[in-house]
Design a protein that fits this description.
The chain is an all-alpha fold. It is built from 20 helices and two strands. The protein has a two-stranded antiparallel ribbon with strand order 1-2. The protein starts with a helix and ends in a 6-residue tail after the last helix.
Length: about 325
């Protein structure tokens, strides 16, 4: 009889479901405690059978909390598919499933953010906003996932709804804020939005890079002039530590703001010009290597529905490839 139940789920056949339950009122209970990789509710969710889902929930709402072999609840699956009506039905029946995590520690809100289903995400945030603050593997927040997967509209929703200084400046296990990730990926619109929302550009990651210094390195490699033009707040104006960023065609340097101390610092700045010019040719080599690394990254093909988010790809190591190159050459030209 269980096989008939699964067949009814595949077809979304509600009359067959009711007929089976009339014959065996404990059928759904047996399925829940049985050795199955997924329930009929998982199947109906994936296939978008709304009426079948509603009937299952009416008969046995707690089935919404059952996790499959990947740790996914029916809500994870409906969210991944973007089925808003099914998501609403599941949340009404069992709202706390918003907190349930799959094998990668992602709850349904994380999945909605990754997939860019903004209407689904809005519904889930409205039901259980605290679930948006859950941290997944490698210390990433839901905001990190939005930037990693380039989901700007989802990011806007979360920051506008839940944003506070601590949340938007959260760092992952590598010390990267969402601004580090956006600059590393050259997401111009995202960078502008984050700066306007007050994300701190001077937080240092575990490799000693601020978002400002990442932007500077991108400019020295010839890859961030567009971002610099769009984001004068961090490339030309003073930053929160009281420094102003100035750029030239050889290297990007940081100098104190124009004011009463400028005269005292003028000689020191001039003494660095020679060092900067000495590095020019070396930086051209670095820029070429950086461009090569960036190009190679574009050749990695995407995976399936979940492959792109597997643990092997989940860790974002900003500037990991450029740091050894940068410091190798920089060590040959110590600051004067």
């Amino acid at each position: 009889m269980e096989s008939e139940l699964y067949e009814a789920a595949v077809k979304g056949n509600v009359p067959s479901l009711l007929e089976l339950l009339e014959k065996d009122k404990l059928l759904l209970d047996r399925v829940m405690i049985g050795n199955h990789t997924e329930t009929p509710l998982h199947i109906a969710d994936m296939l978008g059978h709304l009426d079948f889902v509603k009937e299952i929930l009416a008969q046995k709402a707690e089935m919404a909390s059952v996790q499959d072999s990947q740790g996914s609840t029916p809500l994870h699956l409906a969210t991944a598919k973007g089925y808003l009506n099914i998501v609403e039905s599941l949340v009404r029946a069992y709202p706390d499933i918003c907190f349930f995590r799959d094998k990668y520690k992602r709850n349904p809100l994380h999945v909605a953010a990754m997939k860019g289903h903004v209407n689904v995400l809005e519904n889930l945030v409205g039901a259980r906003p605290d679930a948006a603050h859950s941290v997944i593997e490698h210390g990433q927040t839901i905001l990190h996932l939005c930037v990693k997967h380039n989901r700007l509209e989802a990011l806007k929703l979360l920051i506008d709804t839940l944003g506070n200084e601590q949340f938007i400046n959260s760092r992952d296990d590598d010390g990267n804020t969402i601004l580090h990730l956006a600059i590393a990926d050259k997401q111009t619109e995202t960078i502008v939005f984050l700066i306007n929302k007050g994300v701190n550009p001077n937080i240092t990651n575990s490799r000693g890079f601020t978002a400002v210094s990442l932007l500077a390195q991108g400019e020295s490699a010839g890859g961030a002039s567009e971002i610099r033009d769009y984001v004068p707040q961090i490339s030309e104006n003073q930053n929160s530590s009281g420094r102003t960023v100035h750029t030239n065609n050889t290297v990007t340097t940081f100098h104190p703001p124009i004011g009463e101390e400028e005269e005292r610092k003028e000689e020191e700045r001039k003494s660095k010009i020679k060092w900067q010019n000495s590095m020019h040719q070396t930086l051209l080599v670095v820029a070429t290597l950086l461009a090569t690394v960036a190009y190679q990254a574009t050749l990695t093909p995407p995976g399936g529905l979940w492959q792109e988010d597997s643990p092997s790809n989940d860790r974002t190591n900003v500037a990991a490839s450029i740091t050894p190159i940068w410091w190798h050459f920089a060590s040959r030209f110590p600051e004067q």
